[in-house]
Amino acid sequence: MLQPFDDNYFMKKAFQQAEMAYEKAEIPVGAIITHGNQIIAQAHNLTEQLTDVTAHAEMQAITAAANYIGGKYLHDCTLYVTLEPCQMCAGALYWSQISKIVFAAEDAKRGYRSMQAKLHPKTKVEFGIMEEEAAQLIKDFFLEKRKF
Amino acid sequence: MLQPFDDNYFMKKAFQQAEMAYEKAEIPVGAIITHGNQIIAQAHNLTEQLTDVTAHAEMQAITAAANYIGGKYLHDCTLYVTLEPCQMCAGALYWSQISKIVFAAEDAKRGYRSMQAKLHPKTKVEFGIMEEEAAQLIKDFFLEKRKF
């Protein structure tokens, strides 16, 4: 049976955002936030273009989703992001009390888990969907960057 | 001898920002960022007005300072903030590689130290300047809030 609005579907949408970051010479990370089966925010990393370390995909998506909802808290919302969030984004997600986070590739060095950052106790986490594709996109980015 | 541009001077400026937050019914936290003896960014908490958990004083100040400098990194810059940064703000400060952080009041519950968030190894930290005034302002805010 077809399940068009499943985790794979939404992670593909986040991956498309990551590809948009890649095209702009940004570290390719993309994020979307859903509420029910509706995408209420989508964003990609813009730290270089905006010369702003806070412009991670997740941060922009949190701001956009809260704006859409008209409230600070992202209850009943899910974040799909192509890379494990850093401690800044984990901190923002903590304050948002988001219901669920799904990330693709792990970030062993700067991910929130190795940095020991805390998520909200209400937040469920899943990972590994499209892990290889998301990790490969980032590897390709840095390989290409080294050529110049 | 007069030392007009010392830590006390700049923390008073951050405190004035916190008072502006108080007047807007925001949790009263203020921040400024200096480069040399120049204030290059000032901001106060706007999470309620913007319905955005990411709108902490520090986050806005980081964005504004990077915009002023024209680069992502806040080398040779100091953040003065009236409350110990949370893990989100610590994470943003980590990415910014800011040279120094001075905070007034400690946040035993949600401060970056108790949350085990990491600052950049290059970042020096001082705290305790105007600690009582900054803590009292926050206490006053919550006491007043409970009345309504």
Automatic annotation (TrEMBL), chains A, B:
InterPro entries: APOBEC/CMP_deaminase_Zn-bd, CMP_dCMP_dom, Cytidine_deaminase-like, tRNA_aden_deaminase. Its cofactor is Zn(2+). The keyword Metal-binding applies. GO terms for molecular function: tRNA-specific adenosine-34 deaminase activity; zinc ion binding. Zn(2+) binds at H56, C86, C89. One of its GO terms (biological process) is tRNA wobble adenosine to inosine editing. Residues 5-115 form the CMP/dCMP-type deaminase domain. This is tRNA-specific adenosine deaminase. The active site is at E58 (proton donor). Keywords: Hydrolase, Metal-binding, tRNA processing, Zinc. Belongs to the cytidine and deoxycytidylate deaminase family. ADAT2 subfamily. It holds the Pfam family dCMP_cyt_deam_1. Binds 1 zinc ion per subunit. Homodimer. It catalyses: adenosine(34) in tRNA + H2O + H(+) = inosine(34) in tRNA + NH4(+).
